[in-house]
Design a protein that fits this description.
single chain, 483 residues, alpha/beta, Rossmann fold, Helicase, Ruva Protein, domain 3, 4 domains, 5-stranded parallel beta sheet, 21 helices, 18 strands
Length: 483
Amino acid sequence: MTLSKQVLVIDDDRDMCELLQRGLSKHGFGVEWHLECSSALSALAQQDFGVVVTDLKLGQASGLSVCERLASDRPNIPVVVITAFGSMESAIAAIRVGAYDFITKPLDVRALALTLDRAIQHATLREEVTRLRRQVENVRDTKPIIGESPSMRVVYDLVDRVSASDVTVLVTGESGTGKELVARSIHERSERRDGPFVAINCAAVPATLLESELFGHVRGAFTDAKNARDGLFLEANRGTLLLDEIGEMPIEMQPKLLRALQERKVRPVGSNAEREFDTRIIASTHRDLEANVAQGRFREDLYYRINVVRIPMPPLRERGHDILLLAQDFVARIARRSGKPNVVGLSQSCAEKLLDYDWPGNVRELENCIERAVTLTRFEQITVEDLPEKIRALDMPPGFLESTDPRQMPSLEDLERRYIHRVLAAVGGNKTQAALVLGLDRRTLYRKLDKYSRASDLTPSSERQGRPKEDRVFEEAQRLIDA
């Protein structure tokens, strides 16, 4: 959404109007000024403005009446009130009738410009949250996976194209990105939708039991095998089997899986007979399987068997305003489930914090955050105070790279990591374009992303989630790189 930097100034002092026009134009604002309230309101009815600046005293009229009129007719336009007669009572009165801020004369034009920028950004974000709230019900009706970012549109396209066939699919992406939702969506859109959807997390089953879980066993095959049992390949017959986190499968189990996939038959543990199955296979992993193949931790032939079509799930930090769309959906569902139907959305300041955070735990962490906030909030909208401390404490002062306080200085590696993710988000997750922007070859970029992914798995969440994360990091980085 494009921000409008058109400012409407209302003041009965011509000199003040001209002063504001000259000063604000130097900060990139377009300024139109009016000496009378009636002509200003007519201008508002005919064209779009990003923000209104009005004096408190307007001859016979009052800036407060402008606030009241706009709050009723154009609530999406923020109003900043200025006055030479500042008092606490005047400020409270202005805020009560809908003013965004209250500033006393003499004016510092630079400070006023910052205030106007913040007012426009808040208004734009409020409109975005409202738009997403209206959309979320329609999105939920059409897709089990929520998102409108370019990278998610690629995912939707791939899901639509593979659902009509029985091709084996490999879904990749960081933990918490929604890989199982993609697998379920493929199943529900396929001709196997009436059959079972069965999932197993290969990392959660001990190696000694995994073969029995997948292929089944006969009675007496091992201690405690008191009854024969079909494995998951047979339980999912005429349906879909998801082998979640297949990258964690023990190397000694992999040739047995490969044979089952090639022959479409399984041999239960302790049996001499094979049994046929008719099951669609979807695998998922957060590992770089190509790297695992190169290191001898994953069989190359099995990798090519499962990687017929690959669907990469983008991390949440690269999905832009999908964060707010997901958050709004979580608010609606969790509020109904927890008996708090009065909780209907997010405040704009809360939405800003959600967008600023890096979400190392991806969609799963966002859902956990919203569940906590819905539980704690006392208002109709979730506020910043309802968010976890690590998200509330994201403030980073401007010019932090010049700071002498070591606590405000990120490491060079951390700065590089955040900037690379910022570039990826800006190009919709296209790694080829990102490599061109960064001045790297694609192999170097892939290697860095793999390193960051492995570091996020090994670093304790309390350490990696507590780092400040602000867009200013990337702006400063861009400035340094350009320099």
